[in-house]
Amino acid sequence: MKKFAALLAACALVLGAGGCSAARSLNHQEMAVSNTVTTGCSAKMKAEQSKMGIAWYRTSGEAKALYYQGYALGKMAVDQSLREKVKKKRAIVLDLDETVLDNGPYLSYMAQKGISFGDGWGQWVKKAEAGTLPGALEFLKYADAKGIDIYYISNRSETYLDATLKNLRKEGIPQATASHVLLRKDTASKEERRLSVERNHEIIALFGDNLTDFEKKFDNKEMEARNQDTVRFHAEFGRKFIVFPNPVYGDWDNGIPCS
Ligand SMILES: [Mg+2]
Asked: What share of the chain has pLDDT > 70, as a percent?
């Protein structure tokens, strides 16, 4: 417990002044936003387990470096594509939360309140105060300048479209329009939305912090199966699939033990 107290202090150091003002009510529907399943662990246990990850994510240089690294790989993928002939218009596809948008203040709020991902999420999103992650804005501006179509496929509920567009525009994110920001309607699977982009585009690269951001084979998979598919798709990582770190929430935590 002493260790967690120290970690919380570290979180507090990087927490912006308004970061703890997100509201409180637990909204289980919104927890589905990330496909996160808490089966087998109580919310309190999950909250305790999250604290180390939140401290790492918010304070470490390594976390920031991984974002720079991922977006450098993205730029290489764009440049490589521009040297090749393609039959359709080029596009890139990005997840939003913990890929483009940095919800760090909300994560620190989680740590300070001892709550799980999803509690107060809607109120945080409506504030439209997420920043951008390292390297994201520069990369997106570069891709935009090169004439690449940019699509943001996120499992934020579609009811948050206005707030999400407001947040993206406030941060200067290019192509932040309703036709380029595809939020969740009926299903958490992103496959249909990816296919809608693919219909008229050659997708150069996809960016995300959850394997379901890349390929339908990862949808609704238990830990062992998703690890097997990670090996199966190994040649895509760092080339077409650009993965960012999220040690706090995601489908990866479905299979970890509670104690
Ligand atoms: Mg995400």
From this structure: 84
Please give the distance, rounded to the nearest whole angstrom, from the Cα atom of residue 96 to the centre of ligand 1. Answer: 6
Question: Distance, CA 7 to ligand 1 centroid (Å)?
Answer: 23
For ligand 1, the distance from its centroid to the CA atom of residue 30, given in whole angstroms, is 14
Distance 184 CA to ligand 1 centre (A): 13
What distance in angstroms lies between residue 98's CA and the mean position of ligand 1's atoms? Answer: 5
110 in Cβ contact with 7 (< 8 Å): no
Q: Cα(145) to centroid of ligand 1, in Å? A: 25
Report every protein residue that has its C-beta within 5 angstroms of ion ligand 1. Answer: 95, 97-98, 209
Convert the pLDDT of each residue in 92-122 to its tens digit.
Answer: 999 999 999 999 999 999 889 888 888 899 9
Q: What is the dihedral of CA 133, 138, 140, 146, to 10 degrees?
A: -170
The burial of 20, by beta-carbon neighbours within 10 Å (0-12 exposed, 13-18 middle, 19 or more buried), is given as: middle
Q: What is the pLDDT of residue 40?
A: 61
User: What is the domain partition of the chain in residue ranges?
Assistant: 2-245
Query: Do the Cβ atoms of 206 and 73 come closer than 8 Å?
Result: no
From the options 3.40.190.150, 3.40.50.1000, 3.10.450.50, 2.40.50.90, give the CATH code of 2-245.
Answer: 3.40.50.1000
Cα(6) to centroid(ligand 1), Å: 27
Among 164, 219, 230, CA closest to 193: 219
The per-residue pLDDT for 41 is: 73
CA of 147 to the centre of ligand 1 (A): 25
Biggest alpha carbon–alpha carbon distance for the chain: 58
CB 181 within 8 A of CB 128: no
The answer on pLDDT for 70 being more than 90 is yes
